[in-house]
Amino acid sequence: MKRKQLESYLQDVDHFSDPKIELEQYPTDPHLAASVVYTAQSGYGDIEDKCVLDLGAGCGMLTIGSVLSGAACVVSVELDSSAIQDMRGNLAEFEIDNVEVIQGDVTRLPIRQGFKFDTVIMNPPFGTKNNSGIDMAFLEAAFGAIVPHGVVYSFHKTSTRDFIVKKFEDRGLRVTVLAEMKFKIPQMYKMHRKREVLVDVDFIRITGKLSDCGG
Amino acid sequence: MKLLTHNMMRSHCKGAVNGFPLKLNFSQVNIKEIEFNPDFINRMLSRLEWSVLVDTATQLGVNEGLPEMLPENQEIDDEETLKKIHHVLLEVEVVEGELECPETGKKFPISKGIPDMRLNEDE
Lengths: 215, 123
Fold this sequence. Notes:
The complex is a heterodimer of chains A (215) and B (123). Chain A has helices at 3-10, 30-44, 61-68, 81-93, 134-144, 161-169, and strands at residues 51-55, 73-78, 99-103, 117-122, 146-157, 173-186, 196-208. Chain A has 215 residues and is α/β, with parallel strands linked by helices. The longest helix of chain A has 15 residues, at 30-44. Mean pLDDT of chain A is 90; it is low at 210-215. Chain B has four helices and four strands; from the N terminus they run αβαααβββ. Chain B is globular and about 50 Å long. The model of chain B has no long low-confidence stretch (mean pLDDT 96). Chain A binds chain B through residues 49, 51, 72-73, 75, 79, 84, 88, 97-98, 100-105, 108-112, 114-116, and chain B through 1-2, 4-5, 7-12, 18-20, 32, 34-35, 37, 39-40, 43-44, 47-49, 90, 112-119.
């Protein structure tokens, strides 16, 4: 599916009906979600026919993008009950039947060690709301869940780039910054003076070094 | 919750060493035809705890035609068998029910097909 077509489908994904500031809930922008999934699939073949895990799935934007790009099966983990209802509504709207939703905490992921996914795709919280360190916790969970030549696609503040690159390259993994972008993060509460904050964000791909040889 | 999902999940209760397999109680099950992807099913075989899948399928009464054991190389050529495995993994869904941690007894509800695996801080 072409990127533009994917993006136009994703415009129909409904947003959070009851966004929670403490969970950093905001929908992944459809243009961005389409670019991410399109890159993962057309650039690297990491979505089609794969077993994909979406950590912190929210309303399901990246999940639905993955399904539309040919994922064989997607498991979506989300903590918040209203987001889960929103995601259910979106999955029904799109008539999607190969997504499994699990309500749970990514930092205490209810997946056994022996079961592994091909690809993780996620837009994790950044740790700006009394939850510092949560971005790294999501990355650790992602790495615990993939096959040896598996791959993780994620977003992280550019300010954490050096830390992430060092941490994962020290383990023999390869970190590639695929794009730099600015995220508009809505404040969503009247008490904040600024309606939105612009944050510098990296879109990264982390994988074992051997994966790039077409393995 | 499909049986593929049951096969991958564990409880994360403090004090649960494995938290797997989760005991299943069910009150509503749905069968829905899902597109068959034989290569995907074959690739998943080595990731499954096969005996747990057989036990759960038996409990749900959908184990007909399911091999008791996988061959050593964990690959299956016969398309009919792959279709039966596909059916068990992806076409049988527990819509309402409950999972239970085998070690602590903590219960996790399944509602509208979605298992709620959340824990309190002290659990």
